[in-house]
Amino acid sequence: MSLQFHNQLTKKLDTFTPLSEGKVLMYTCGPTVYDTLHVGNWTAYIYWDTLVRLLRAHHLDVTRVMNITDVGHLVSDGDDGEDKLEKGARREGKTAWDVAELYTNDFLEGMKRLNLLTPEHIAKATDYIVEQLQLVRTLKGKGFTYQTSDGVYFDTSKFPRYDDFADLHLEAQKAGARVAANPEKHAPSDFALWKFTPEGQTRDMQWPTPADLIEEGVERPGFPGWHLECSAMAMKLLGNTIDIHTGGIDHIPVHHTNEIAQSEAATDQPLSQFWLHNNHLKVDGTKISKSLENGFTLDDLVEKGFEPLDLRLFTLQSHYRTEGNFTFDNLAAAQHRRLRWRNVAALRHQIHDTLQEHEGEDTYGLYAASQALVEALSDDLDTPGAFRLIDEVFGKLESARLGTIHRHGLVSFLTTIDELLGLQLLESTNDITDEPKQLIIERERARENKDWDTSDRLRAKIEKSGISIRDTADGTIWEYVS
Ligand code: AMP
Ligand code: ZN
């Protein structure tokens, strides 16, 4: 079964073959740790986690690096303005180092809550300053840099393919452009590799600028530009060329374009053979912004009675390349879907003992469904297609007679769903205790005796233990209510 993904490098669906047989080197652009992540930020990490799971289902050995941007990402996303970390430090009356630690831990905790797999390397930009400076040195040695009063810049005119990745048509843009924000830059697209700490200021995070990287006479501390870290860390931890690089669509025209320019200028080799980008999430049809206070966090969702896994399911209902729209109604619908799915998973506790685990017919094609699920996702991570398939199979199981469901087939399908989509259908569906089970048996007996009063009384008692029951031709089935 082949894998195919939409590749920003070629702008089309390409069949994926790893560079080295059986192995995948992958890099995911990670968060800037100056605040708690909102539902939009989590979108990316949910999709790319699912991609890793899919690659593993193809028996590929994935090594993934995710960076933690703890320095150098300026509020403008360009070369101007305050560092987001320093801004966070001012807001909270802490140092930038403390803010970075606080929100890195917050992010890692959020990853666990969303059942996101831990990448093999979680790399902090501040731990790779030496490597970043080395990359600046290489680029300087090859004539790709120039210095201004505020930093060392990459000269994009020296990299003729600069426009290609994002189809930028910069020449046309330049003709209509107004005065560049930084008049010392040779072109608006040039970007800072290393910035000097502004004269008269001290930053929490700064490092001496090595003498060989600066023109004589300027001896100033500095810090890396945002794009530099990803190139330097990918190179250090994975090598010059990797298989897959992922990020949000906002990364295409600047961050990834710049990563490609600086990496490929330094190594003369392609940085990555595949580039995948997730579209953005809106909230109530509007862009997420601080001023609208619509950047809901995982804690906000929990406060309103949802679980992080409801967000995971909500996100995966849409394809990663389509724009998502978050509303609490949509999240409630996702929560409802997850509850339905959990109740199908709970059927495995109720299939009668008379049917042996490995016997009986796989009437509902559960083994084939596992295979079909991998196939759906292999087509450019078609999560909506995977969800349609699950709904179709589960719909049949909901109306099936219990005795006709192949227990082992069901467990196997649930395992595949959990491995690929991380929804913890098995983990979140423990069997009920003996007490309500006993009550269900007593009620069935009462029904056989047409003792409806006792039956009703027992139903009320059963439902007090947090489950509901429905009567079928095969007997009573219990279900979770939340
Ligand atoms: P940042 O922490 O600003 O570097 O952003 C972290 C990630 O969140 C990036 O990959 C962005 O592409 C992504 N991101 C930011 N806003 C949204 C959004 N509304 N929807 C989806 N992804 C987003
Ligand atoms: Zn990056």
Major beta-sheet overview: 5 strands, parallel
What is the CA-atom radius of gyration, in angstroms? Answer: 27 Å
Q: Which of globular, elongated, flat, extended, rod-shaped describes the shape? A: elongated
> Oligomer, anyone?
single chain
- Assigned CATH superfamily of the largest domain: HUPs
State the strand order across the main sheet: 5-4-3-11-12
CATH architecture of the largest domain: 3-Layer(aba) Sandwich
Counting H and I runs of at least 4 residues, what is the number of helices? 15
What does the model show?
With 482 residues, the protein is α/β, with parallel strands linked by helices. It has three domains: 3-278, Rossmann fold, CATH 3.40.50.620; 298-421, no CATH class; 434-480, no CATH class. 41% of the residues lie in helices and 17% in strands. It is built from 15 helices and 16 strands. It has helices at 39-57, 84-92, 96-113, 129-141, 170-176, 226-237, 252-267, 298-303, 308-316, 328-345, 366-378, 383-398, 407-421, 434-448, 452-463; strands at 3-7, 12-16, 23-28, 61-68, 121-124, 145-148, 151-154, 191-196, 207-208, 221-224, 242-248, 272-278, 281-283, 324-326, 467-472, 475-480. The strands form five sheets. Strands 5-4-3-11-12 form a five-stranded parallel beta sheet, sandwiched between helices. Helix 7 links the parallel strand 11 and strand 12 (272-278). The two termini are 38 Å apart. The mean pLDDT is 94. It binds adenosine monophosphate and zinc ion. Residues 29, 230, 255 line the site of zinc ion.
